[in-house]
């Protein structure tokens, strides 16, 4: 990330840019070599723009670090952050594995041509239908999350012609420093088997009784938007301790240790994440040290970056609309999207930064509350954004919207979901078309007529 600085009376004003973002001689924001004003004119707004070059560089950095350290590994894109056929194809091009959490994500991946043997199927309440799809498509691994699921896996495995690899998801009792809604590794969690009360041991026992199943090892995910390596190290030590006890007590050796994802990104100046490589290097050091101390064979390390691959690769472009000043309180600026395409600020107070994409070289020194157009008082994207004096039709860029924006988008107020475009090296291509009003009613049943005889 770089800082773009503009002069203003009495000082300087700065706007942070991400990845391949620059400002051209027109004062327009460029993303991946494309003028954002041209993109908005071509595809309309709201528009989510992904710098796929940044995705590629992040993916390569994760993979290269494992390779340089001589550690066998899989890097799986945690696609709940943003799922569509185009991003799955990009992940496949970069040699990533894929983490899916539903039948819909699995179906999308298969339709995109993603190799099924590199797909890991997650989820805390997989249906038998979803698990059957996983067996039929030949996914590479199922991450078992609960005892009901183990029973279903057993029934399906006995009727299948292929052996299924399984990881056991556990909660190691590690509480990462993150928001309560996105913390998943503590003991009080809906995910996984408790590592410390015997649940994980019982899960291994039940899975070991199914000849058609091969247990690879343990999986954990301790949370999201994590800025330090300490929690990952504690989780690794805890899981390796359990793995070592299984070796001593059962003669079972885990071949895979999956430490999940959750690597933080920079949304605002207050965020201070590490580079992707630093998270990986710290994990490797801890795993090597802990396994050496226990004389335990070094397992293959799997990780699942999601937000850190797509988060700051995405920028949402909006058109500025109405304004309202509440004297002494705030100045509202409404845009043509909002919580329907980015619910994170309303859901758990997520913070973002913004700029005027068509006037980047002007002082960003006026304070606005950027509000959406949904009929909710809480539909605010940014509480205090610094922008130039905004005019109707200006192009507002909200940065780092690539993770859990479109993925959590809705048709609230019957608003169509935005288009998504990929840009790289001065070229652009449509990834997801903009929904139309016709799309909104496509699944509606035809209106019924109500008469004396009832509905017909």
Automatic annotation (TrEMBL):
Role played: Specifically catalyzes the decarboxylation of meso-diaminopimelate (meso-DAP) to L-lysine.
Entry binding sites for substrate: 307, 344, 348, 376, 404
Residue stretches in coiled coil: none
Pfam families: Orn_Arg_deC_N (PF02784)
Cofactor(s) essential for the protein: pyridoxal 5'-phosphate
EC class of the enzyme, as a word: lyase
Pathway per the UniProt entry: Amino-acid biosynthesis; L-lysine biosynthesis via DAP pathway; L-lysine from DL-2,6-diaminopimelate: step 1/1
Catalytic reaction list: meso-2,6-diaminopimelate + H(+) = L-lysine + CO2
Domain of life where this protein originates: Bacteria
Assembly: Homodimer.
Organism: Bhargavaea ullalensis
Name used for this protein in its record: Diaminopimelate decarboxylase
Residue span(s) of domain Orn/DAP/Arg decarboxylase 2 N-terminal: 55-310
Modified positions (N6-(pyridoxal phosphate)lysine) in chain numbering: 80
UniProt record similarity statement: Belongs to the Orn/Lys/Arg decarboxylase class-II family. LysA subfamily.
Residues annotated as transmembrane: none
PROSITE patterns: ODR_DC_2_2
Binding residues annotated for pyridoxal 5'-phosphate, in chain numbering: 262, 304-307, 404
Entry's Gene Ontology molecular function annotations: diaminopimelate decarboxylase activity
Keywords: Amino-acid biosynthesis, Decarboxylase, Lyase, Lysine biosynthesis, Pyridoxal phosphate
Listed CDD domains: PLPDE_III_DapDC
């Amino acid at each position: 990330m770089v800082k773009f600085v503009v002069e203003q009376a009495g000082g300087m004003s700065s706007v942070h840019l991400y990845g391949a973002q620059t400002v051209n001689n027109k004062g327009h924001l460029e993303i991946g070599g494309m003028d954002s004003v041209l993109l908005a004119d071509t595809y309309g707004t709201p528009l989510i723009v992904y710098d796929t070059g940044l995705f590629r560089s992040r993916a390569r950095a994760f993979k290269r670090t494992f390779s340089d350290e001589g550690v066998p590994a899989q890097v799986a894109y945690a696609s709940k952050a943003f799922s569509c056929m185009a991003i799955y194809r990009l992940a496949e091009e970069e040699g990533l594995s894929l983490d899916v959490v539903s039948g819909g994500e699995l179906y999308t991946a298969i339709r995109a041509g993603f190799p099924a043997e590199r797909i890991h199927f997650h989820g805390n309440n997989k249906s038998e239908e979803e698990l059957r799809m996983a067996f039929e498509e030949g996914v590479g691994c199922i991450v078992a999350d609960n005892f009901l699921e183990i029973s279903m896996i057993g029934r399906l495995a006995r009727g299948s012609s292929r052996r299924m690899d399984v990881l056991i998801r556990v909660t190691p009792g590690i509480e990462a420093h993150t928001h309560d809604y996105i913390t998943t590794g503590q003991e009080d969690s809906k995910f996984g088997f408790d590592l410390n009360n015997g649940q994980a041991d019982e899960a291994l026992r039940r899975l070991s009784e199914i000849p058609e199943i091969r247990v690879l090892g343990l999986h954990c995910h301790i949370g999201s938007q994590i800025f330090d390596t300490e929690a990952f190290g504690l989780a690794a030590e805890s899981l390796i301790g359990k793995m070592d006890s299984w070796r001593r007590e059962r003669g079972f050796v885990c071949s895979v240790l999956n430490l999940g994802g959750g690597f933080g990104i920079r949304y605002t100046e207050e965020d201070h994440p590490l580079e992707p490589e630093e998270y990986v290097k710290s994990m490797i050091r801890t795993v090597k040290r802990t396994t050496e101390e226990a004389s335990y064979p070094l397992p293959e390390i799997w990780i699942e970056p999601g937000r850190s691959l797509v988060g700051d690769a995405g920028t949402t472009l909006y058109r500025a609309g109405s304004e309202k000043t509440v004297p002494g309180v705030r100045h509202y600026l409404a845009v043509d999207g909002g919580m329907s395409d980015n619910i994170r600020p309303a859901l758990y107070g997520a913070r973002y930064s913004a700029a005027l994409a068509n006037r980047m070289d002007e002082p960003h020194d006026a304070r606005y509350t950027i509000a959406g157009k949904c009929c909710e008082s809480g539909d605010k994207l940014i509480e205090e954004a610094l922008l130039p004096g905004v005019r109707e039709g200006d192009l507002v860029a909200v940065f780092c919207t690539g993770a859990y924006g479109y993925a959590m988008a809705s048709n609230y107020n019957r608003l169509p979901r935005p288009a998504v475009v990929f840009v790289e090296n001065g070229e652009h291509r449509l990834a997801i078309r903009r929904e139309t009003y016709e799309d909104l009613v496509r699944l509606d049943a035809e209106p019924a007529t109500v008469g004396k005889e009832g509905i017909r």
